[in-house]
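EI: anyone free to look at a 640-residue chain?
SC: sure, send it
EI:
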Amino acid sequence: MAKQSDIIANHKGQRRPDNFFRTIARLLSYYKNCMWALICAILCILVYSAATIIAGYMLDPLVKVLESALEDKAGIHIDEQTAKYTVLLIYMGALYLVGALTNFGLNRLMLQCTAVVMAKLRTDLFDRMQELPVAFFDSHTHGELMSYFTNDVDAIREMLNHSVTQLLISTASLTGVIIAMISLSAPLFLIVLVLGTLVVLITKFIASRSGRNYVHQQKALAQVNGYIEEMMEGQRVVKAFNHEKKVMADFDVMNEELRHVATRANTLASIMGPIMNNLSHIFYALTTTIGVLFAVNGELITKLSRNSSFDWSKVGVEGAVLITFLSFIRQFSNRVSEISQQFNYILLALAGAERVFKLMDMEPEIDDGAVTLETLEDGSRVWRMIDKDGNEVTVPLVGKVELHDVDFSYDGEKKVLEDVTLYAKKGQKIAFVGSTGAGKTTITNLINRFYDVNDGEITYDGIDIRSIKKDDLRGTLGMVLQDTHLFTGTVMDNIRYGKLDAADEDCIAAAKVANAHYFISHLPEGYNTMLYADGANLSQGQRQLIAIARAAVASPVVLILDEATSSIDTRTEKLIESGMDKLMEGRTVFVIAHRLSTVRNSNAIMVLEHGKIIERGDHAELLRQQGKYYQLYTGAFELS
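SC: here you go
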């Protein structure tokens, strides 16, 4: 499987996709989800190709009937010739009608099949994203991630919707045309074979260069989309600091790069069609010329080959055969041109598919935990595990969290945490204070196992959290983050997100705990008020209160508050203090706060600096020490 570093390199670098054929084979494997529709479509393609080729082949008997009618100057057999001609025309018309109906049927079936394939592909891509670790999302912009679902998936859809169908039709028809041409005149077909080989070589030459440029185009497009989304989200900040010109200048650089690579990719792709068309005209003219010479099969050929021992009569062709062969030449050229033109869409789609499959091949978030959480009949919960002797044991879920000599680094080079040790018992409130980048949020990320420690150990009720299944671990934790995210849906839906099976009464009770019930009741539709655009129709403080209610309804054993009241004014903060106290009662609580007033009643306060705990104790003890916390609290230093 691909690793995260490979994905990042693939976005930033400009290397060629590993294997076009393997990628397209993997794409086509998705057709197993609509196998019967595909089989019916292929049968339609075979019938369509056979009908059109046989209809074209009937030019030969039609021309021969006309020749016979012209030779019958006395008109003795004119009625017979007319009847034959009429029957042949009816047969030809019926064949073309069959071709039209089967063409409609196969396109309808392929559209249906493509919809099934794309639904499955999007599902697989979305599901894989849900399984990826937090580290992946920390290293990619939202726009870059959305590019997978928009640019890349759309390119794949265009290929499957049009190119695959056209490729199957053209390939089947081309095969039939080649068989018909060989049966009509092998010598003339040899000429076509030589010219066709030239077409293949030209197509291969252009495709190899165009393919690399399409990969670069998709990467540049993802970068542009990511930048646009980021700027749209931060438009207030851009305008507040008058950075419109700077933003436009940066966008122009990326947009120019996209223009450059897109021009290169599409220039090579666009010249393929004209080249194929002109070559087809040349092929037609050469074949016509040589075919006429063969048809003459007489004086001119004999004079030109007077000293040759070869019997030129063997390569003579009848006029009817030549006319029919020339019609197949046109079909041959058209089919070859259609196949070559589909390479544009195929190469673009493969560039996107390469990126999609590399993401889908990334290693999912590793969960090697064997300890599970179980709810007993009396409603209590326990950790169920196997001890060293192989016996099944249970450990009560209490909420005791300990960190022992923990070291951690995001990039493997710069340490974010170093030798961190702390203890949190059930019902205790542990606060982290310190400057930005000191490592406060990192500790909570490690407790959630968004990342794993590099060294040391974190235990939960005496169990190494790496031994606990992540779903069960996180099911006992509740988080209220500084950056609140609300989903599109009702207020009730957003509160219930903390516990999907919670009743309306439970959600309302949780809102009352967070003191959000009052303002929610005064919304236009109350708890049924729809929220859009991350809750843009609410104030920042109201959004934070809903997030607190969402954590409350989950009834977590361990509660993590990461600047949970940072967006709430002092008055609102006082209003929810009693509610927060109820929420925290009996739970292990970790609080990260810049407002030191919110951590005064903590059982223990950890002062972090450069990833180390430099002071610890309760509010009174730290003030008596007159260290860094004392300086922060008295205003000698400010948190930043």
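EI: The domain at 428-451+470-634 is CATH 3.40.50.300 (Rossmann fold).
SC: 👍
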